[in-house]
Write a structure and sequence with these properties.
This protein has one domain: TIM Barrel, CATH 3.20.20. An eight-stranded parallel barrel has the order 1-2-3-4-5-6-7-8, surrounded by five helices. It has eleven helices and eight strands. The protein is an alpha/beta fold. The longest helix is centred in the C-terminal third of the chain and has 19 residues. It starts with a strand and ends with a helix. Strand 1, helix 1 and strand 2 form a beta-alpha-beta unit.
């Protein structure tokens, strides 16, 4: 049985004091609630503070990106060893905003996945299509290709430590969201793609989230679907009560 995972991607929001307040509020309201794995993904600046607050709890901490080298002359980048030193459990890789604004490619996603796994950090790999690609009927081929390239040369033994997030780009920060049936179909395709590479047992172990304007009003629609194992939540993770409602839906 796959345990649902709800990850809050704060993006470029929250100072350290604001982040502390948010985490403290969420922990207070969810203490003893263990049916879902909850992960906070703050900006780099707040990672240590959030890790301090989650120490000794079941709450996880994730970064929003990393570089694939352990160290070197790469000004402005953060290495997997630095994230491990902070105590990061997870790292988001290949988010559509990274792909769109910062030149992320399927090849660099794969390098980052390998680097995260080597450092003992669990990757949350994002895949998704634009509205133009969706309307052109390219969704299935694109998602299959992104999944295959992200997992290229990954050991089968690593699959249980990987999370994949299907985030249709046209639904991120737009207020639009996919419906449960469509999201379930695409996530089923991702699972089938994993099965084709690593076998059915691995495909049944990997957790696959939906991301894209997730909120308390629609979380049930997605979580009722058999293939969907959780959500990668953006804006709705920035408010205590909203995020708690999503986790408890």
């Amino acid at each position: 049985m796959r345990k649902p995972i709800i990850a809050g991607n704060w993006k470029m929001y929250k100072t350290i004091p604001e982040g502390r307040s948010l985490v403290q509020g969420v922990i207070q309201k969810l203490t003893g609630y263990n049916e879902v794995e909850v992960v906070f993904c703050p900006p780099f600046t707040a990672l240590s503070a959030v890790k301090d607050l989650t120490g000794g709890t079941s709450f996880g901490v994730g970064a929003q990106d990393l570089y694939w080298k352990e160290q070197g002359a790469f000004t402005g980048e953060i290495s997997p060893l630095m994230l491990k030193d902070i105590g990061c459990d997870y790292v988001i890789i290949g988010h559509s905003e990274r792909r769109e604004h910062f030149g992320e490619t399927d090849e660099t996603v794969n390098l980052k996945v390998k680097a995260a796994l080597a450092a003992g950090i669990k990757p949350i790999i994002c895949v998704g299509e634009t509205l133009a690609q969706r309307e052109a009927g390219e969704t299935q081929n694109l998602i299959k290709r992104q999944t295959e390239l992200a997992l290229k040369d990954i050991e089968t033994s690593a699959i249980p430590r990987i999370v994949i997030a299907y985030e249709p780009i046209w639904a991120i920060g737009t207020g639009k969201s996919s419906n449960g049936t469509d999201a379930n179909e695409v996530i089923g395709l991702i699972r089938k793609t994993v099965a084709g590479i690593f076998g059915n047992e691995s495909a049944e172990q990997i957790r696959i989230q939906y991301g894209g304007s997730v909120k308390p009003e629609n979380i049930k629609e997605f979580m009722d679907q058999p293939e969907i194992d959780g959500a990668l939540v953006g804006g709705a993770s920035l408010e205590i009560d909203t995020f708690v409602k999503i986790v408890k839906y």
